[in-house]
From TrEMBL, chain A:
Keyword Transmembrane in record: yes
GO cellular component: a single term: plasma membrane
Organism, as annotated: Faecalicoccus pleomorphus
Record protein name field: Branched-chain amino acid ABC transporter permease
Main location as per UniProt: membrane
Source taxonomy: Bacteria, Bacillati, Bacillota, Erysipelotrichia, Erysipelotrichales
The gene coding this protein: livM
Automatic annotation (TrEMBL), chain B:
Cellular component terms per the entry's GO annotation: plasma membrane
A GO molecular-function descriptor: L-phenylalanine transmembrane transporter activity
Primary location: membrane
Compartments in which it is found: Cell membrane
UniProt family annotation: Belongs to the binding-protein-dependent transport system permease family. LivHM subfamily.
Gene3D superfamilies xref list: ABC transporter involved in vitamin B12 uptake, BtuC
Transmembrane segments: 12-35, 47-78, 90-106, 142-159, 189-211, 226-250, 262-278
Record's protein name: ABC transporter membrane-spanning permease-branched chain amino acid transport
Gene Ontology biological process terms from the UniProt entry: D-alanine transmembrane transport; L-alanine transport; L-isoleucine import across plasma membrane
Amino acid sequence: MPKQLLNKENIAWLASAIVIFLVCSVLMNAGIINSYYQITLYNICINIILAVSLNLVIGICGQFSLGHAGFMCIGAYSAGIVTKMMPNLGGLFLGLLVGFVISAIVALIVSIPTLRLKGDYLAIATLGFAEIIRIIVQNMKITNGAAGLSGIPRLTTWPLLIIGVVIALVVVCNFTRSAPGRACLSIREDEIASEAMGINTTRYKVIAFVIGAILASMAGALFACNFYVINPTQFTFNRSIDILVMVVFGGMGSMTSSVIAAAAIGILNMILQNFSDIRMIIYGLALVIIMIFKPSGLLGTKEFSFKKLFQKRKGNR
Amino acid sequence: MSQFLQQVINGLSLGSIYALIALGYTMVYGIIKLINFAHGDIYMLGAYVAFITTTYFGFSFFPAMIASMVVCGILGVLIERIAYKPLRHATRIAALITAIGVSYVLEYTTQYVMGSEVKTYPTLLSNVSFSLGPVTISMQQVYIFTITIVLMIALQLIIKKTKMGRAMRAVSVDEDAAKLMGINVDTTISFTFLLGSSLAGVAGILVGIYYNSIDPLMGMVPGLKAFIAAVFGGIGSVPGAMIGGLFIGIAETMVVAYGSSLYRDAIVYLILILILIIKPDGLLGKNQREKV
């Protein structure tokens, strides 16, 4: 049976995306989601893209990267510089494209030597690369050094964000179910065994890493065009950890849980805004406690799927 | 030439502080294969303990140093018992994330209790300097270097000559076999954390004196650099940590002196990436074959 693009579950997914989009738009227009909540909502969307893209690297491929902020930084600066010259939607797309190309090239350069490393060495190497990216950005003329870029036109809109989230989710979920995606899963489960089965482990790790980097740069571009101002201190090691926290809280390898965790942490951040020290202590404790009692994250690798839902309902009948 | 020598002297004193922190990383990594991200924060706490004991209780340098060592050592053991022990057989990623979590708790608890502002460190050692030919050496640098060397030799003696040291080496080679030989693995690992953390405590007070200021987030970057020093020297090797620390310290001061201070951190990460690509086992590390 040929696979239909518009089967029941795909329509259900599309419908739910449209419903979320419309509900939030109506609420925003009606002023129920005021500008304060709107910032949180936009942040959540950007964080979802980041969490999902990091989850591809950590959860699906099992490669521990601590350098996601570096790629976000590349995306943010590319979009910031281009849109300052071309303050319209075309500029944003051009900026996105530039960001994709640069981050893909950088990801290739970073990943080919470092992905031969394992586990914690890889984590430190990616961390080092991300810091180098940040330091280079901090010392370049075009990026305006440590002061950062300001006056970036505000081009990120709610429809664009939703499209970004949907693209990120579709890319990652489809990749996971493709042949390279399954190769990545097997690398996560056992690298030596998958190598013995004839999988070119480095190649698939690089593919996953590059896709993750491109998606992170997309999130960075949306971030830059949302906040007017970007500077290198926004893309430190701490940002990478923030993204990591979302992936870990939700569950490594589950996109549903990344989305939920990004949303929950976004709301939690808004509530605890005035207690930033306590918030960080809570995060730290939560990381330790989750790792001790449920190392696979709160939801593990469980995914929400309409297919299962439909089957269950059929079964009940 | 005289400027070069001067930079070498400065680099040596900075490097010996890195070396002290690197020792903790290298011992812990050698024994349980965990990058103890919280180690940099233990060193930060060491600086704070010495700050509190000297400012509020009027301790002089050596009692304050002992106090830092004791507090940090106990803290290291507590962290190991509470956070790392349940995860000893979990995946490496899980252990690493726990370490990051512990590091967050230490940093922000300190920030919550002590405030986030930079604190000025009391002058504990005389900062008289004297000239030795073309270079100027301050007494602080002499103290830092001497203390580091003495501790390093003491550590080497503990590891090579005592029963506990032999147990540590045994556990780092093969935990299960060590257990079968009647070694108490838990105690040995705790002892490793005790040693490493108390050295980090000393590094904390030394860096406080050297830079004159401390803040709750000061542990992160030097912690990473010390880890890089440990990797450079060959992780698991005590002399390697010393060489790595001194090398990183000198490289960093040279970049500041002859290049741009903006790139002082970048050079360290560059060294890390180069060493990982060229010789991942480090200078003095043993080549370990992968076992299936």
